[in-house]
Design goal:
OB fold (Dihydrolipoamide Acetyltransferase, E2P), alpha/beta, Ribonucleotide Reductase Protein R1, domain 1, binds magnesium ion, binds guanosine-5'-triphosphate, Rossmann fold, 13 strands, 287 residues, globular, binds zinc ion
Length: 287
């Protein structure tokens, strides 16, 4: 039987669901490929059909990029979804996501969801901070629909991944953009003040308006293992404007004298919270 080229849209129970122009095939991987590689959602593959809609993965084409958490390959942009409340906004986690998305070479977009639960002033302030940090910021409410159309347009024609903690409303936003997705939505545990890990698998969905978007399971912690301590500062784009004026060319903006970034923080030209979270991550990478 014939071979097909397609894209892995979901991996469940040892099977890879591959979307091809000829239809969807449930594929598996064996032999050398199985021992030597890991197939990720988003991978472009060649499959060999052996019966009806079952197939074997024969080849994985080279990846443009990959993200490890959530695990996905070949995406154009990372949309980090955070809720303004319920579960509470976690800026430490947001900054970690931002580092990893930038380190993977993806365009970073932040979606602050559940704006219906907080004041307009709060939304305005956080938006400004992260715009200064070089991100595209989209405030939304999957409940009222505010900002959802803007998010939908940002996704158009691109391959995007939605990432963020459990319960922030990733699946709710996607259902609002395209009700046909019918993704399962979970309640927030009021006792633990977090989501219940409703989405279980990374899945690439096809957008009616063009492009694909991955819904992913939420998680609550994120290690920066792959990041080099000396490279961290480049993922805080708001430092770049000041860094040329630091006394030492390799300044980490930490304990060095004559640091122009520290000076800018003092003068409130750089957000203090962002700078302190940078220092926390820097020290974590030291160990
Ligand atoms: N008030 C309010 N509630 C929202 C909003 N968006 C989502 N929710 C609620 O938040 C809860 C969690 O939503 P989900 O869409 O399941 O969250 P998720 O990010 O997909 O969570 P996981 O799949 O567990 O990672 C549900 O009870 C939603 O109804 C919003 O904009 N405002
Ligand atoms: Mg979900
Ligand atoms: Zn410096």
């Amino acid at each position: 039987m014939g071979t097909r080229k397609g894209i892995v849209i979901k991996a469940v129970g040892g099977f890879y669901f591959v979307d091809t122009p000829q239809g969807m095939y449930r594929s598996y991987i064996r032999g050398r490929l199985k021992r030597e590689t890991e197939v990720l959602v988003g991978d472009k593959v060649k499959i060999k059909v052996f019966d009806g809609d079952n197939a074997i993965v024969e080849e994985i084409y080279p990846r443009q990029n990959k993200l490890m958490r959530p695990a996905i390959a070949n995406v154009d942009q990372g949309v980090i979804v955070m809720s303004m409340a319920n579960p509470p906004l976690n800026l430490n986690l947001l900054d970690r996501f931002l580092v990893l998305v930038q380190a993977a070479g993806l365009k970073s977009i932040i979606c602050f969801n559940k704006i219906d639960l907080v004041s307009k002033a709060e939304v305005k302030e956080i938006t400004k901070t992260y715009q200064q940090a070089g991100a595209i910021v989209i405030p939304t409410s999957a409940k009222t629909g505010d900002g959802v159309e803007i998010l939908g347009e940002v996704l158009r024609g691109k391959v995007s991944v939605l990432a963020g903690p459990s319960g922030v409303g990733k699946s709710s936003l996607l259902n609002r953009i395209q009700p046909g997705f019918s993704l399962q939505i979970g309640k927030i545990s009021q006792k633990l003040r977090r989501g219940r890990h409703t989405t279980r698998h990374v899945e690439l969905l096809t957008l009616a308006r063009g492009g694909r978007v991955a819904d992913t399971p939420g998680f609550t912690s994120l290690a920066l293992d792959e990041i080099d301590q000396r490279e961290l500062r480049y993922y805080f784009p708001e430092f770049i404007e000041w860094a040329p004026n630091c006394r030492f060319p390799g300044c980490l903006h930490w304990r060095e004298p004559g640091c122009a970034v520290k000076e800018a923080v003092k003068k409130k030209q750089v957000d203090q919270g962002r700078y302190h979270r940078y220092l926390d991550l820097l020290q974590e990478l030291e160990g």
